[in-house]
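Per reviewer request, we include the raw input and output of the structure prediction for the construct analysed in the revised manuscript.
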Amino acid sequence: MNTDSLFRPFSLKSLNIKNRIVMAPMTRSFSPNGIPGADVATYYRKRAEGEVGLILSEGTVIDRPASSNDANVPHFHGTAALEGWQNVIKSVHEEGGAMGPQIWHMGIMDNHHSGWTPSTPFEGPSGLNRPEFNNGNTMTAADIEASILAYGKAAAEAKRMGFDTVEIHGAHGYLIDQFFWEATNLRTDIYGGKTLAERSRFAVEVVKEVRRQVGEDFAVILRLSQWKPADYTFQLAKTPQEMEAWLNPMADAGVDIFHCSQRRFWEPEFEGSDLNFAGWAKKITGKATITVGSVGLTGEFLKAFAGEASEPSSLDELMRRMDRGDFDLVGVGRPLLADPNWVKKIKENRVDELKGFTKEALAKLVMD
């Protein structure tokens, strides 16, 4: 298995990384009251020590009262939380790593199993998290404007603190994605509409505001998904033409890299081509892309929560697609939770030392 293509450097604006491997964002909920502590810094430091090219943080929420449904998810606002993130990026840079925070607003959510709730009701485009599940408020024009500004402010803080990039979370059924989906966006104003392109206005304005606040020289990543937590087979864009109408306005607004979330990276997006989501996004926009989805392991991340273990799997198909130029970067999740040294082992072809993944890896933040 020749993995040389994974270990070429990559540069784009503020982002200069030693290889093509990206630690995918994975919610850990180890930041009490939203404040990442020394253990969070150690967690990320270990991945930088292990030679991950780019670390994308767990989702960290913007400054809106109901942006989170979990008291232990980190914030990316407020003095104490930002000081915690300052320690994180200092630790990562000391080990020669690069990092960006994933900035996040969850939108309408189920209530957390802990019983904790935010100080105000959840907010979303139409109060819906999925069809017929209303658990919050419909956002007013003022709410939307304030949220757009909060994304921009979080991105500006990331640049100020010395992060190498920022990722906007626009996937997986959270706020931006709730605007995309016709089942959760029933609005009749300028943020709604019958087409995906019309319902993308909120995302476009978020990207524009982020770009305005960070300037032209700072790399901006946007994470998107076709699938929904309520429907794994769902496609927002059902044809290449719909995907073009969806992605190109966001590219024009300032996205540098599209992070294209799939459950299985090898699955084709549309009939008639074996290109995956990241492959199509790059073909359509000309922008750099990150592929992600069960890289390096059997099974799926979502099934891990139910106790399903995974074993190491071949990277041959990944390399075939990468060498063909389908995508530029590769997001890796569970292997890096289970083993901070996964990248080193791949680079040195120590495949017999690769570890599987079990749900126990989710229960502990810092692992050797």
